[in-house]
Amino acid sequence: MNTIPSPHITLNDLRSAKLGLVLGGGAARGFAHIGFLQELDRAGLRPHCIAGCSIGAFVGAAYAGGDWARFTDHVLKMGRGDLMSMADPVFPRHGLMDGDRVVEFLSSFMRVSRLEDCAPALAVNAADVATGEEVVFTSGPVLPAVRASIALPGMFTPAWNEDRLLVDGGLINPLPVNICRKMNADIVVAVDLNAQVLKADIHLEQTKAAAPGKMPNLFVLLFNSIYIMQRTINLMRLKKEPPDFLIQPELRDYSLMDFFKGPGCAEAGARAARKFISELSPAPGD
Q1: What are the tens digits of pLDDT across the range 150-208?
Q2: How many folded domains does the chain comprise?
Q3: 225 catalytic residue (yes or no)
Q4: Which of 118, 176, 177, 278 could cross-link with 51 by S-S, CB 3.0 to 4.6 Å?
Q5: How confident is the model at residue 283 (pLDDT cuts 50, 70, 90)?
Q6: Domain with 218 in it: what CATH number?
Q7: For this structure, is 278 an active site residue?
């Protein structure tokens, strides 16, 4: 789905504008952000700024402040053993994992340590557990901000940041278009990973199977419930704060926990980017 405010926006317009990119949350579906960004690069589209939530914050940090080529090459070649090595289980203490090893993995690719040194500019969000307030990071250390933004309840333990206990920003603002607007973007492109969230994780057959007592497992139910909530929040916020282009990659074949399907998921993001670029109006004279 593409939301286009003007039929006259061309690829050259996007290249010359301050392009803002919003990378939404979606757990393992975040691999789609990698393919999307790779295709933008191939088309000569370099964002002016990125606003990331959850896995979007993680990928956004690697793109804006890390060795992007080395990161993508490594991530898309990871096997089950590589992924399992990043697990630091603490269940049942506040979540399945602490998340520190995931952040350590990201740190091995980072070239900058502070958000204000990222290029393009990067903002990430989180939610304060005590107050329900959104916390937006635009300066300060990158890694603690990302750690807070990815703290999906049930998966990762909450993150302390100064005197605040923070969790995944998607609980409040899963597709932070408004944050990207505040970063002086001329045109905002938002990548929503959860348009087909229900179709991938709890199939009709599973629902029917619940009748004789076979229910989806606890974590599928928990994470799917969170993303139902996030999808609802998205729909409400998008009515008030629409991006100029809303991109929803076809991800119904990838569940929120499909961390072992990175290359296929990245290709789905790349296809969405190619479609988006191909549907732009031709430049005068083309």
Answers
A1: 998 878 889 999 899 999 999 999 999 999 999 999 999 999 998 876 554 444 445 45
A2: 1
A3: no
A4: 176
A5: low
A6: 3.40.1090.10
A7: no
